[in-house]
Amino acid sequence: MFIAPMLLEQREHPFDDEGCLFEPMIDGRRLLVSLERGRVRLYTRHGIEVTSQYPELHQVPVAGGADAVLDGEVACFDAATGTFAPERLTERFRMRKPMQIREAAVRQPVHFFAFDLLRCDGADLRDLPLERRKEMLSGALEDSRSFSKLPYIDGDGSAFYEAMAGKPFKGMAAKRKSSRYVGRRDGSWQKIMRYRYANVAIVGYRKHHFGWLVAHDRKIVGLLDRDVPDPYRQAFGGVSREIATGEDRDYVYVKPAIAARVRFRDWTADGRLRMPEFLGFAD
User: Fold this and answer.
1) Which residues are paired to 84 by β-bridges?
2) Is 177 exposed, middle or buried (CB count within 10 Å of its CB: 0-12, 13-18, 19+)?
3) Which residues contact 241 (CB under 8 A, 6 or more apart)?
4) CATH 3.30.470.30 fits domain 7-193
5) H or E segment at 137?
6) Where are the domains of the chain?
7) Where's the ATP-dependent DNA ligase family profile domain (predicted)?
8) Which pLDDT tens digit goes with each residue over 185-202?
9) What is the pTM of this model?
10) Is 24 helix (H, G, I), strand (E, B) or coil?
11) How far apart are CA 206 and CA 16, in angstroms?
12) Buried b / exposed e across 251-269, counting CB within 10 Å, b at 16+?
């Protein structure tokens, strides 16, 4: 059974609130796990069934084998680096050959972190407050090799956020204890992301659609193509021809004379910026 997931609104800074629960945000993908009459189905946040992608999640450790719908995050973890491996998870998601999927389930298994219980033993729990659903999740789901309940704390979000520094979480979720589960974005659930920051040189621009090619330490690390305000685009466009050095079918290349300040989620395994955001021109 697919249930439209509740989504988080973004907030810039951590805060304290005794009316909220605070959770670490796993660097993975949203997943709903449905167990109905002994049959497991797995769904993405968009309702796409991906049951065959993750055979290691087919044994759901729900007490008594009761029907249930769990909301959470699926992730791959790299034990060698002590971090989550979103690129590996993307590989798993894209696999189609059954043998390849079975081998990957052994070589690079995923893990499901449950943070909500939406149905249990035939009862719809979405109108219950989150605090009560958390209590029921604790009693219904047993931790196993492939399943865990996501930890959380009450009230002290600022200290919790700071404690995550240097740990492999992409941010913190703040959820009101009284919140009902609604299948849309709602302000009673918020996310505060952890970012890295860097100055990057603009070394080219895309010909046919907006996008600045950027480099860090003389290596191409990504493309800035979203959320750049028009005044900055126009300012760069006014000097781009003067600093152009060459072109190919897709790009015009320029001298690295203009730097941009960006924030981003992390570095990818191949040394590129994950989800970069433009903050302004750097001094």
Assistant:
1) 77
2) middle
3) none
4) yes
5) helix 130-140
6) 7-193, 196-281
7) 103-154
8) 999 999 999 999 999 999
9) 0.87
10) strand
11) 43
12) bbebebebbbebbbbbeee
